[in-house]
Specification:
The chain is an alpha/beta fold. It has a domain of 253 residues. It has seven helices and 17 strands.
């Protein structure tokens, strides 16, 4: 039934697709539409990359120490630096090259548009309700109505506040509740009445060691692949501290990803369309080659490169801007001070990576079975 609901949603265009027909779309649980597909501004940036501080927490936005978001070993915190590259690596890299490489003109650019907030027991709680087509009719999402911390001066992705154009933006809201050891992630969320209405709400236990199929096979999340977005977002504070202890979120145009399958540690796939057997599948892990020369990069950029070599990048969604870093408006440090810009990694090609830790293809059915 859920597969039929998603198909109907796609046919009726109930989630936007900002991309060109050749590049596909992405950004949400079904891999459709949203600012992951947005074109960069005149300086190549998407979102905020070094603006002035604007603590969106209403006084409760202090971040925990670097690496403390999830407190257990997770699939996205796995050190893969010593693993041998997969036997299919050369074929997958060659196929992605043939399909056009990274999105946005084959440039490994950074999108800084997703904010990450922190709350505690003093943060106001608001009621989250479901949109009429909540969770596409499936069990993937957590039940609503629910109460979650909503920082007073925060905002949804794509908006200056919590009122968001959900027809044309992904409108993610990500909040870490430090007093609950929970991560709340909303997709397609906007202020409605006295609360917030969302197309999907997903709660992650920050103390749990998640298995390789995350919240359950065939289950999506605020990201199409089923990952916690916040778990894969580098922050300016992490980089300033000198280490990013997790894999990075990366995305590709739908036409450059393998259709109808995913591999662990993903638990779901969006709407990829390539029928080539060697196209990269959702959940594939790209690791920057250990021989990649970092000597010309700034210190902050080297922290990101080291994460790419140690933990890799996990294919998480569909869209055009390959890398997603957290908006720095609520962090102590700023991307500009860290020396990281939207164009920092543009010279890095697909050929500078190799595939590691590749699991077997799992056929996408959308029949979510929660762990």
């Amino acid at each position: 039934m859920r597969a039929l609901a998603i198909l109907a949603c796609v046919l009726l265009a109930c989630s936007s697709d900002h991309s060109t027909p050749a590049d596909g779309g992405g950004g949400g649980p079904d891999g459709s539409g949203g600012p992951d597909d947005a074109a960069p501004g005149p300086d190549g940036s998407v979102g905020n990359d070094g603006g002035t501080s604007n603590d969106g927490s209403g006084g409760d936005g202090a971040s925990p120490p670097s690496g403390a978001l999830f407190q257990a070993a997770e699939p996205w915190t796995k050190d893969v630096s010593s693993l041998t590259k997969d036997t299919t690596s050369d074929a997958i890299i060659a196929e992605l090259d043939a399909l056009g490489g990274w999105g946005n003109g084959n440039k490994l650019q950074v999108d800084f548009s997703i904010p990450l907030f922190y709350g505690d027991a003093s943060t106001p709680r608001e009621t989250i309700s479901g949109a009429s087509d909540y969770c596409y009719g499936g069990p993937d999402c957590d039940s609503v109505p629910l109460q979650m911390p909503i920082p007073t001066n925060g905002n949804a992705e794509g908006s200056n506040d919590y009122t968001c154009d959900v027809a044309n933006n992904d409108c993610h809201i990500l909040v870490v509740a430090t007093d609950e050891n929970k991560l709340y992630e909303l997709y397609n969320a906007t202020a409605a009445g006295n609360g917030i209405q969302a197309l999907g709400a997903f709660i992650w236990d920050l103390t749990k060691a998640y298995p390789d199929n995350e919240r359950g096979d065939q289950c999506t999340s605020a990201d199409a692949a089923g990952f916690p977005i916040a778990g894969l977002l580098p922050t300016a504070d992490e980089v300033a501290a000198g280490h990013v202890n997790h894999a990075l979120r990366f995305i590709l145009p739908n036409a450059r990803m393998k259709k109808g399958v995913y591999v662990h540690p993903a638990s779901h796939a969006g709407g990829p369309s390539s029928t080539n057997a060697n196209a990269p599948p959702y959940g594939v892990r790209f690791r920057l080659k250990s021989t990649f020369d970092e000597s010309s990069y700034d210190a902050g950029e080297k922290v990101i490169l080291e994460a790419m070599k140690t933990y890799g990048m996990l294919l998480s969604d569909g869209g055009n801007i390959a890398l997603t870093f957290a908006d720095d408006r609520t962090t102590t440090h700023k991307w500009a001070a860290d020396g990281v810009t939207a164009q920092s990694f543009e010279a890095i090609t697909v050929d500078d990576f190799e595939v590691v830790d590749l699991g077997s293809d799992i056929t996408l059915t959308d029949d979510c079975v929660r762990n």
